[in-house]
Amino acid sequence: MPEPLRDGAPESDPTARPETEPTSHEPKVLGLGAKWALATLAVIAVALVVIGYMFWGLDPANRPPASVNAPILFRLCVIVVLTLFIPFTAVSYYLVRRDVRRRQLREDCRALGLDYEHYYHIYKRETRENHFLYAVCFTSVVTLLGLTAILLGMELGLNKEPNLLLLGTFESRDRAAVEAYQAGPLLFFGMAFLGAYLWGLQHVLHRYHTSDLVPGVYYGLGMRMIFAAFIALMVYHMLPDLESNGSDGGTIAGSFLPALAFMIGIFPQRALQYMTDRVNAIVSPRELKAQEIPLELIQGISINDRMRLAEEGVESCYDLASAEFVQLLFTTPFQPLELIDWQLQARLVLYFGQSIEELRAHGIRTITELKMLDDATAQDLAEKTGATKNAISMARRRAEEDGAIEFLESLRRTLVVGDSIKKCAQPPRDDEDRPIATPSQDEVAGKARAAAAQHRAAE
Questions:
Q1: Backbone angles phi, psi at 429, to 5 degrees
Q2: Exposed, middle or buried, 261 (CB in 10 Å: 0-12/13-18/19+)?
Q3: What is the rounded distance in angstroms from the CA atom of residue 258 to the CA atom of residue 253?
Q4: Closest of 199, 89, 189 to residue 145, by C-alpha
Q5: Which pLDDT score, from 0 to 100, does residue 230 have?
Q6: Can you name the residues that pair with 429 across neighbouring β-strands?
Q7: Which of 1, 96, 313, 440 has its C-alpha lying 20 to 30 A from 359's C-alpha?
Q8: pTM over 0.85
Q9: Which residue, 203, 194, 208, is CA-closest to 89?
Q10: Measured distance CA(118)–CA(133) in Å, rounded
Q11: What kind and span of H or E run contains 276?
Q12: What is the mean pLDDT of residues 195-207?
């Protein structure tokens, strides 16, 4: 009976599990290879353009389909091309980049001494084929409808009939006045949708390059476009009140409106915050809250990193300190050393909050560095910073008792030692480009283990 795959086995091991090892055949999407999948998308694109143009030609007010209307045909092509960006990126990632991520996870697990086969299901369940299908279909339909409203809204007469969302509180029995008014919110709606869509393209491309394009990205993009468009409509209907209270009269309207709507699409949360501030007395009653410890207090975490961590439910330093390391390793694109450093920083922030900046000024970045201090140095640190002696003493004592901190420290030592072995194992060359005698792999590993033991004894 063949022996099961162990951690550290070569990629070509015939005993590997078929669901986790790369296979020799070409990866497929819905049973189609890469070329057939792309050809199918191209056929769908042409079909959408033809069907859209025929549908537009059914209106008696338009020209018959026999006489081609070039502007309408061009807009239809733009709508279809922009919509197909969603499935094209999903197919490309599923066929190419997904294997890159799996190889990276296998190498990280081997370096950390973790069982890849045991934890692989965490990643696999996030990237199933049917999950991609549902997410891509949802976002593609939302994109198709939104871009149609932007580029063909006037031609389809979306502003002609009274619409509750476009009309708002505007009152008039004049049909022409209603049609003229609804053109404004329709433009505002469209520009906000376009801003959210273009932001989404950059986000999808970023996640593609980092091999982290999961179905949740497409669901998030679809919901962001919907959310931004409707928030923009609410803001538009609040503009008359803003203009009446402003010092410049009606200068908020006119040419500034499309740019404002576009920015709302890129930053919908800021628009929501504006609306909340306007009705703060109603929707935000005063209540006692605990002191917030946002992820901005962690060094090395950018805005894109915060957004990615928020997808995993990590929105504060408390969430980051309490998160399971292996779960984050398999569900996010971050390197193991990054995650370890962030989690050790977060545990220090839990104790000192905003005072963390003072500790960093004295060389204390993580809870590990605080734990390594002796009593005299810890007392001196309390005198030089805003942290109290009791707080420092409590943090050091808890750090000694916390097994999670020891686990993270051991993983970091394993990674550092493994990296040292890789560097030492590379044979140096002399001036004549001939290999020089180097220690064996066992000797290098023995020296690395001795160095690690000495480092632990020093701690």
A1: -130, 150
A2: buried
A3: 9
A4: 189
A5: 92
A6: 435
A7: 313
A8: no
A9: 208
A10: 26
A11: helix 268-278
A12: 93
Do 268 and 227 contact (CB within 8 A), yes or no?
A: yes
CA angle, corner 406, sides to 404 and 407, nearest 5? Answer: 60
Alpha helix ranges (H) inside 93-214? 98-112, 116-124, 129-152, 164-167, 175-209
Q: DSSP alpha helices (H): ranges in 153-174? A: 164-167
Distance CA 276, CA 234 (A): 12
Chain segment 287-306, per-residue pLDDT in tens: 656 667 889 999 999 988 99
- CA 402 remoteness from chain centre: 30
State CA 351 to chain mean position distance.
28
> What phi-psi label fits residue 59: left (phi over 0), alpha (psi between -120 and 50 degrees) or beta?
beta
- CB-based contact 261:267 (threshold 8 Å): no
Determine whether 369 is exposed, middle or buried from the number of CB atoms within 10 Å of its CB (0-12, 13-18, 19+): middle
Residue range 386-403, pLDDT digits in tens? 788 888 888 888 888 888
Contacts for 393 with CB less than 8 Å, ≥ 6 apart: 378
**Residue labelled with tokens 């890789």:** 422
Q: Which residues of 193-231 are buried (b: 16+ CB within 10 A; e: fewer)?
A: bbbbbebbeebbeebbebbbbbbebbbbbbebbbbbbeb
231 CB contacts (<8 Å, ≥6 apart)?
192, 264, 268, 271, 272, 275
Residues 6+ apart with CB under 8 A from 23: none
The string over 302-314, giving b where at least 16 C-beta atoms fall within 10 Å of a residue's C-beta and e elsewhere, is eeebeebbeeeeb
| Joined tokens for residue 288 | 């006692």
pLDDT of residue 434: 44
User: How many whole angstroms separate alpha carbon 123 and alpha carbon 134?
Assistant: 18
pLDDT over 60 at 27, yes or no:
no
Average pLDDT over residues 428-444: 45
Task: Give the alpha-carbon dihedral of 306, 130, 206, 419, to 10 degrees.
Answer: 80
pLDDT at 278 over 80: no
Q: How confident is the model over 151-172, as a mean pLDDT?
A: 82
Please say whether the beta carbons of 198 and 182 come within 8 A: no
